[in-house]
Amino acid sequence: xxxxxxxxxxxxxxxxxCIHHLYIYCKTNFSTQKTKDIVAIHTQKYNDILNQIQxxxxxxxxxxxxxxxxxxxxxxxxxxxxxQDLSDPHLSEMDLVSMQREMETFIQETQL
Length: 112
Description:
Blueprint: H1 2-30, H2 38-74, H3 93-111
C-alpha cells in the first residue's frame, strides 16, 4: 500500500517535471525574446533634441543676420538710426556713435 502511494507520487513529480522542461524548451526556442535597448533609445532622443536646437539656432542666426543687413542697407548714412529719437538723456551723441560702430563691427564679425 505504501509502495503504491510513493510510486504514484514519484510518477506524478516526474510527469510534472517533464511537462515543465518541455514548456521551457518550447518557450525559449519557438518565441521571440523582447529586448529593450535602453542606451540607444536615450542616445537617439538626445541626438534629436540636439539637432532641433542646432537647427533652431542656425535659423535664428540667419534671420538676425538678414535683419541686420537689410537694416544697414536701408540707411546708408554713418548712423543707421536717428539719434534724436533716443530717449536716454545720459548718453551723449559720441557714446551713441561709438556704440553704433561697435554694433556694426560685431555684425560684420558674425557674418564671417
